[in-house]
Amino acid sequence: MSNTEGLTLLGNQKTEYSDRYNPAVLEAFDNAHPESNTFVKFNCPEFTALCPMTGQPDFATIYISYIPDQKMVESKSLKLYLFSFRNEGSFHEDCVNKMLKDLVSLLQPRYMEIWGKFTPRGGISIDPYVNYGMPNSRWAEFAETRLLNHDLYPEKIDNR
């Protein structure tokens, strides 16, 4: 049995792009190495959503990092999922929290963090960070430590 059984998007030449928030598009496959603590990081530099108050577009780079347990997210489905925010009216903090909830529900990872680096509007940028650690495990402790220390050494930002 292949660990990609049940995937419908990978290799599909007739992909439909939902322009409304659609967590149902997310797909997962079996982790071939569940005995390893593999840190997987996705960098999504072309994320867009709409301001729920003005309807103006917000742009961001979204960083999704996780340590899988039994399941891993299929990257094409993740791309389509992130695209589905394009016409969604959500505040920046709401976007990253929705992503975390949807991905944790799908994957049940050991650890996950999502950091949105939004471009400024009105002279201010907002960079929400949210994380999760598997309850009743060392990963819950890891998540708390990571949250409390995630921005101790912020990067120099000169391109936004």
From TrEMBL:
InterPro entries (UniProt xref): GTP-CH-I_C/QueF, NADPH_dep_7-cyano-7-deazaG_red, QueF, QueF_type1
Enzyme class per UniProt: oxidoreductase
Subcellular location: Cytoplasm
Catalytic residues as annotated in Swiss-Prot or TrEMBL: C51 (thioimide intermediate), D58 (proton donor)
Enzyme Commission identifier(s): 1.7.1.13
Keyword entries, A-Z: Cytoplasm, NADP, Oxidoreductase, Queuosine biosynthesis
Pfam family, one: QueF
Pathway: tRNA modification; tRNA-queuosine biosynthesis
Binding residues for substrate: V73, E74, S75, H92, E93
Reactions catalysed: 7-aminomethyl-7-carbaguanine + 2 NADP(+) = 7-cyano-7-carbaguanine + 2 NADPH + 3 H(+)
Matching NCBIfam families: QueF-II
HAMAP family from the UniProt entry: QueF_type1
PANTHER family tied to this protein: NADPH-DEPENDENT 7-CYANO-7-DEAZAGUANINE REDUCTASE
Function description: Catalyzes the NADPH-dependent reduction of 7-cyano-7-deazaguanine (preQ0) to 7-aminomethyl-7-deazaguanine (preQ1).
Protein family membership: Belongs to the GTP cyclohydrolase I family. QueF type 1 subfamily.
Record's protein name: NADPH-dependent 7-cyano-7-deazaguanine reductase
Species assigned in the record: Wohlfahrtiimonas larvae
